[in-house]
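Ticket #4471: structure output looks truncated?

Reporter: J.K.
Steps to reproduce: submitted the chain below (507 residues) through the standard prediction queue, then opened the result file.
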Amino acid sequence: MLSKDVRSRIGAETCATFRKLVDAAGMSEQDLMFLAIMLLQNNGVEDDKYWGRKLLDISAAAGYTEASIRLVNGALVQARSIPGVLRQASVSTERGRLQKIAREGTHSRAMVLEGKVAYHLGDFDTAIKWWWQAMEKAVAKSELDAARRVAGIRPTVEISAADRDDLSSPWIELIQAHYDRSIKGMDEWHLFEKALKIGIQQDDPTAFYYAATYYMERDETGQHVPTSKWLHYMTKAAASGVPKAACDLAAFYHESGWKYIEDEPPDHVKPTPFDSYPPTETTIKSTWKRVRQFLWPIEADKGKEEENIFHTAAWPPTPSQRHELALMWLNSAIIRTYAPALLQAAKIHLEETLWAGAKAPEEALNLSPKRYLYASEAEKRDADFSGDIRKYEMPADAQDQPSAGYRPELAKTALKGVLNARVAVFRREATLKATARSRPDLEWEDFRIEKDELGSEAVFYQNADVYDMWAKDSRAMYQEALAICERMGWTLVTEEMLARSPWLAEL
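Returned output as attached by the reporter:
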């Protein structure tokens, strides 16, 4: 996104004049960035894009922090597909400004971005150092914004880099970095868990998703064993707009049978539908305490809020309701242009029956003592030791039921969406390859194209963050969609489409 002009040629006198003009106009730094971004995003008007870049150049040279952040962040995004961008002279000049801002220690976003650049260049220790240094100020900003929301005040918003990469959450960078280093044998699990705890405390949706995957349990065959902690964090992530979490949650509601979650509820939250044995001790006092904590959770109980999932996870209790909820979660991911949800929805719409094992038994829903598999915790412990583990058995007369969601026409529409997603990736890659030398400043705004030929792929350019989550898997998804169509006797790419757009044959 950096222009070919060398920014260092913008002299001190020019910068001083520019600042005077900005002050005379009564403009803030936020106003400057808003204007620059609007010019850059004015599709089809090259003059506007040119002046948008010029405005960023002189704003950065004049000392406006957010302009420098925008320019360096844009270069970092380019560097992921065009090697060497970060070593260009103009970028080095801008990075020098960014480093100066970061070293002052007052701007957490500058520190986070400097860490990102260092990480991309392979200086992992320096990157981690920058992110931990940014943590205190980033947390303070996050907590201030949370308090403002509670008070009904709109949180302050920095208008910066088309912030594809969030620069306000160093805990996310640290979660990823310390996890990667830990699985490679470095003793950093305590740092990973510290960063994860901070992210959760900030109600960060991505941190919720990382927590769900970190706490995921598997059996000896490698199959996922859903637990209360996993379901709690995955639900929070999905409800907060993480499309991958919505898909994982959809799979849970679509595939899981009773018991939906497998861990034993602690005594202090019983009774619940998931109890394998009665609590060791139940008194009127402790029962009232449980009810009070469930209805009016206090700050001291906040860390245990995932235990409330034992009171709610039995809903919905029927196969048809769980099937419907799975599709609702998938639709929330589809709305966010998360292409894998389309493939997942197509498969569900092609299932003719619903598994009877997904029904919650009445004795569990009614909290009947018949739901117990063991008479006591001691009996359960002995059974675990001896290997005599008891499982819920479906009634002998249980039968799968026809699925109201069996909708082949909707499945076909979803598979066409998978085709469009693959087209979006194919055309973007082709454009990048063709223009990498002539347009090193190519940005995401350039892919907000008008509808032409197929055209429906344009929707997948709307959210760069979501696009990056699935783009590398688009070919495999497309191949799977083709296999489904072949099995169903459908044609995904017709001869007419090929005649109109021959490049479809290359997908």
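Triage note (M.O.): checked the attachment and the full token line is present. The CA atoms of residues 146 and 152 lie 10 Å apart.
Status: closed, working as intended.
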